[in-house]
Design goal:
By secondary structure, the chain is of the alpha/beta class. Helix content is about 35%, strand content about 15%. Helix 1 runs parallel beside helix 13, helix 4 crosses helix 8 and helix 12 runs parallel beside helix 14. The strands form three sheets. A seven-stranded mixed beta sheet has the order 2-8-7-6-5-3-4, with helices on both faces.
Length: about 425
């Protein structure tokens, strides 16, 4: 009897991972179906925690719904693109028109589209470590090679431009900058951004700037739009409605080309060709862009003292400080915290095993730090979207589990020790 042939996935998926929605998330769904109440902190999905999209944006879609039944221009409807131009101009970005704006089905689609237009076999892209893992995956899927530059915990997760420069080769095509940063919440200082820009301009590299959390900052942290610093190379800035406007399901993002665009006309035409192949992005959501960018910015209330995001972040900071085993670089932006576990207390700590134990035993779902392409295994990411009381309860359960580890004769270990892995950035 012959065995059935097995259908195997493409080899291109070998280096692609997205653990944020992977094995642990599937197990959390199984536990929920069994009747357990799981607190899911693995994804920055505002709607899951009761946040609402501003009413004016919903009304804008409803009022224009009759105009949303046909295909639109491949780059997006003009009112949405023009609203993005006006936002960029208000921030000090010059030389941008609607022709340099691409509307996509979220920033995720635009990352893939841009890299597909840019990369040839073996081209290298410098990607931060930790990163939002879609960036590494998209580089690999589009025939490139992701080269990770370290954003070290001891440096507040801010990159060192000298370390970045040391990784450049003749194959380097672009530098990815995620600011404010996911997963760490770091907001990069102007001086660091300027040095990265000068490096890119000297080498003719494209700057790919993921700024989806551009208005989510705390305690006076200054967000500097990268495009305001770039003059002599191409800068592509990406943002959207998902986070600042709590509209993840609308699937509306944009990419804006600025800087030395005259040298990139062929690339931009390639991006438009790819945009044409998918006909157009979601139309109803595009009608919310002009209202979102031009209307009242309610995110400021949420991130100010007393606001929901601010107070939840405060609960994370206070809980980490109160723990004898947790380490935290205070997040200055975005909606996450990248929490470390002291390896002096737990020298064999493994983030994947910890996340599994936390889910199975305490019914809390977090994202292991190694999911974000770091060489160490003693961090995990949580979102600050739940209310402060829920987050204090979560950290109580985390401390309970760590206490159980401390009392166990043989703490659980999986896939090697933290100490061995830390040598990759040395």
């Amino acid at each position: 009897m012959t065995s059935e042939p097995v259908l195997k996935p493409s080899e291109s998926l070998r280096n692609v991972r997205y653990e944020i929605r992977g094995r642990l998330a599937r197990r959390a769904q199984e536990l929920a179906r069994m009747g357990y109440e799981v607190t899911s902190l693995n994804i920055g999905n505002p709607a899951l925690f009761g946040f609402r999209t501003p009413e004016t944006m919903r009304l804008a879609m409803i009022e224009n719904f009759s105009e949303s039944e046909g295909y639109t221009h491949q780059k997006g409807i003009f009112p949405a693109r023009e609203a993005v131009v006006m936002q960029q101009q208000a921030r000090g970005v010059v030389g941008v028109s609607a022709e340099e704006v691409f509307i996509g089905n979220g920033v995720s689609e635009l990352i893939d589209l841009t890299l597909r237009a840019l990369l040839n076999d073996g081209d290298e892209v410098l990607v931060p470590s930790p990163d939002y893992p879609l960036w590494t995956a998209a580089v690999n899927l589009n025939r490139g090679r992701a080269v990770h530059y370290p954003c070290r915990p001891e440096n507040g997760f801010v990159p060192d431009p000298d370390e970045l420069a040391a990784l450049l080769t003749p194959r380097t095509r672009a530098i990815v900058v995620i600011n404010p940063n996911n997963p760490t919440g770091a907001v990069y200082p102007r001086a660091v951004l300027e040095r990265i820009v000068r490096l890119a301009e000297q080498r003719g590299l494209v700057l790919l700037c993921d700024e989806i959390y551009d208005q989510i900052t705390y305690d006076g942290a200054e967000f500097v739009p990268m495009a305001t610093l770039v003059h002599d190379t191409l800068c592509i800035t990406m943002s959207g409605l998902s986070k600042v406007y709590r509209a993840c399901g609308y699937r509306v993002g944009w990419a804006v080309a600025s800087g030395k665009t005259r040298i990139a006309q062929d690339l931009l035409q390639g991006m438009e060709l790819l945009a044409s192949l998918r006909l157009c992005s979601n139309v109803p959501g595009q009608w919310a862009v002009q209202t979102a960018l031009g209307g009242y910015q309610s995110i400021r209330e949420l991130t100010a003292p007393g606001g929901r995001l601010y107070e939840s972040r405060r609960a994370i900071i206070d809980s980490a400080e109160a723990s004898s085993s947790l380490l935290l670089q205070t997040p200055q932006g975005a909606m996450y915290a990248f929490v470390g576990v002291d390896t002096e207390d737990f020298p064999q700590f493994d983030d994947q095993q910890f996340a599994l134990d936390l889910l199975e035993q305490k019914h809390v779902l977090v994202a292991p730090g190694s999911s974000f392409n770091v060489p160490y295994r003693n961090h995990f990411r949580i979102t600050n979207l739940p209310d402060a009381a829920t987050l204090r309860m979560v950290f109580q359960r985390i401390d309970e589990l760590l206490g159980e580890y401390r009392d166990a004769p043989q703490p659980p270990v999986a896939r090697g020790s933290v100490v061995a892995a830390q040598g990759r950035f040395k």
